[in-house]
Amino acid sequence: MRATSAGLVTLALISAAYAQESNADLVAKLRAAPAHTDRIALLTDNQFVFDFLNPKTGITTGSAGHTVSANSENYPAVIGNGVSMTIGFLGPCGLNTPHTHPRATEINFAVNATLRTGFLAENGARFVFNDVPAGSVTIFPQGVIHFEQNQGCEPAMFVAAFNHEDPGVDQIAQRYFGLPPDVVGATLGGLGVEEVAGLEAKIPNNVAYGTDECLKRCGLTRPDPQLTSQRQPRNDGNVLPAGFSGPLAPSSTPAKAATTPPASTATTGSKAAIKGMRGGKR
Ligand SMILES: *[C@@H]1O[C@H](CO)[C@@H](O)[C@H](O)[C@H]1NC(C)=O
């Protein structure tokens, strides 16, 4: 019998759904296991290994780089061990845009470039600002707003470890501007909803192009527009004014759709950039 392309697509969808279900099944078994030895018995040797250079899941892509995360969602070996990891592949001047991890403290190792970092803890705390040279680490306490920018004109890598198997990530600009536009406008001292919608439309995906100072020093131009698919999806509660469109609310979980845009939304440019950054490191 001849396989039709529709048939192949159906098969691919079924096997993707099966993989997801069996992963959830495994996670449930690991969580229910009475002892650590039982969890080890549930996993094969190679399920303890996660390949950050050739990942199939956990990828977040912007115009200036990407990150890859291994946590309880896609790396079941962390379950019961209280840790997870994200590797950042930042292009020249790439900025891991301000975000928080609601459930974890992060310790971040700058592998081969200086990272400009900053964090803000709760109301009343002072701002902490550092250039972290290659070979050094810095720490972002649980819940603080923080960012890291590659200060170099070459691609850079960082290694971020977390003390939670499901640290979570909350991108500040993408989420803040996803609140009801009139509330955002009022919070900004009375901006109109159309101004709010206009600002929101520009919010780039993470990893984004960084500061003007860096771009100028490296002879780079910020692309306009950058990819903007990580903005908060809209529903009846946070609808934009007529004439402005935001990402549509997906029927499933908005947070996941927001942090992991489907490959089809990535531009050819960013795919090429990822390829370039991964080149020769298999
Ligand atoms: C840093 O490491 C990454 C990953 O191996 C590589 O793509 C990048 O070119 C390196 N950058 C420098 C400045 O060595």
UniProtKB/TrEMBL annotation:
> One matching Pfam family, short form?
Cupin_1
Q: Which InterPro entries match?
A: Cupin_1, Germin, Germin_Mn-BS, RmlC-like_jellyroll, RmlC_Cupin_sf
What SMART domains would the database entry show? Answer: Cupin_1 (SM00835)
Query: Residue ranges under compositional bias (Low complexity)?
Result: 249-273
Q: Which GO terms describe its cellular component?
A: extracellular region
PANTHER family xref list: GERMIN-LIKE PROTEIN SUBFAMILY 3 MEMBER 3
What is the name attached to this protein's record? RmlC-like cupin
Lineage, highest ranks first: Eukaryota, Fungi, Dikarya, Basidiomycota, Agaricomycotina
